[in-house]
Amino acid sequence: xxxxxxxxxxxxxxxxxxxxxxxxxxxxxxxxxxxxxxxxxxxxxxxxxxxxxxxxxxxxxxxxxxxxxxxxxxxxxxxxxxxxxxxxxxxxxxxxxxxxxxxxxxxxxxxxxxxxxxxxxxxxxxxxxxxxxxxxxxxxxxxxxxxxxxxxxxxxxxxxxxxxxxxxxxxxxxxxxxxxxxxxxxxxxxxxxxxxxxxxxxxxxxxxxxxxxxxxxxxxxxxxxxxxxxxxxxxxxxxxxxxxxxxxxxxxx
Amino acid sequence: xxxxxxxxxxxxxxxxxxxxxxxxxxxxxxxxxxxxxxxxxxxxxxxxxxxxxxxxxxxxxxxxxxxxxxxxxxxxxxxxxxxxxxxxxxxxxxxxxxxxxxxxxxxxxxxxxxxxxxxxxxxxxxxxxxxxxxxxxxxxxxxxxxxxxxxxxxxxxxxxxxxxxxxxxxxxxxxxxxxxxxxxxxxxxxxxxxxxxxxxxxxxxxxxxxxxxxxxxxxxxxxxxxxxxxxxxxxxxxxxxxxxxxxxxxxxxxxxxxxxxxxxxxxxxxxxxxxxxxx
Lengths: 253, 279
Fold this sequence. Notes:
The structure holds two protein chains of two kinds. By secondary structure, chain A is of the alpha/beta class. Chain A contains nine helices and nine strands. The radius of gyration of chain A is 19 Å and the shape is globular. The relative contact order of chain A is 0.19. Chain B has one domain: Orthogonal Bundle (ABC transporter involved in vitamin B12 uptake, BtuC), CATH 1.10.3470.10. In chain B, helix 4 runs antiparallel to helix 9, helix 7 (about 140-170) packs antiparallel against helix 9 (about 180-205) and helix 11 packs across helix 12 (about 255-279). The chains are: A alpha/beta, B mainly alpha.
């Protein structure tokens, strides 16, 4: 790793060992084990209901799970507090709410109540955060008027401040076209090399996964296959879940 | 107090505000309407209009229980009960066991029934009927002092939790992922609303309190694009409705509370029209 980046994160990898989630007598996840490495784009794929979002929520500590989630630094030591940035699939807010992108980010970046105004320092920080995710100029747009792709970038700007060790993204199923997704993934790849962090992405676009992922995990309640995109896409488990030639079919769409 | 009265004499229309009770009512409105309005902006964003309505109704039960327990001070009984009631509704809402709408409705009707049951014993309800409609003309200088203290505490708390509450109302799990203790923040907000409602209810009345909380904020929302505009419009509309309503009530010899709410409702209608027009 580049020496000058070491201060921002000492995380080497996150070990997920035999994580299970049960709720109301149902098993949502069974013995999931995987490693998420720093400076890599790890992508979770699987059908709807395979437990992708559940796994993310377990990693974020939002729902109880059994098993071990360990964060190791470069020397193999445990890091007690992992800084995570989270980009949810969608927001459950009222789009008519009078709230600009700048208000939204200022509420997260400063303690001063946003209705009393935003200091020039915070305004600058917001501009920089938006520029870093190719979303400059959105400051005065009401949050509810942002397109799916714009909202995703705003949420990414939020998740990157403060700089996280692990960035978790739950990609929206709809609302963003493939071009939008491609641009978003380009942004992520750029961030991956400029920030030192691990990125975990849930994705539904298999063609783009193949193109962009460093490591792919195929999930259906438990891990069916994991490895490089080529390895996973060639596995018999992949064909079982998505049907043979799924990727080709999608590419032709 | 004399200095304030003298100042008011020099700026307010002399006929309506020659009386001390009108001056006191005016000051009460200056304190109450912006407080309720500001809290209302978040109640509206949080979709809690119905919740605050239920909270107002619980004042009846609070006073009833105060009587049973032999408490001298109605306000203390209302405050304690209002806060407990608010936290209870909040906990049930957060547990997600039933739809919020239904839970609130159950609480609302239960508290009205319990309050009426106690207060109407032996046909004595007439003594408490002023609670239903309120009487802002009965405010005394010591009441004003309490209101001022409450206003200061609420504004300080409000400043303290506002940003966390805003993120919570945008998305709860996002707020949690940023280390915000969403339940605590929500409960603190609900307690603040309960305190503001209980403090105002003697002057505004159970039936109209929610209008003062929701109407200015709802009208402000139609006109605003940012949180700052929302707060400014809301406080402006709240103050305007309060003062215009009180003054009109004097000249037209009508109920002050009802006049204030009707002016606020008119503002809401105009804001709705303005919003349509802008689109």
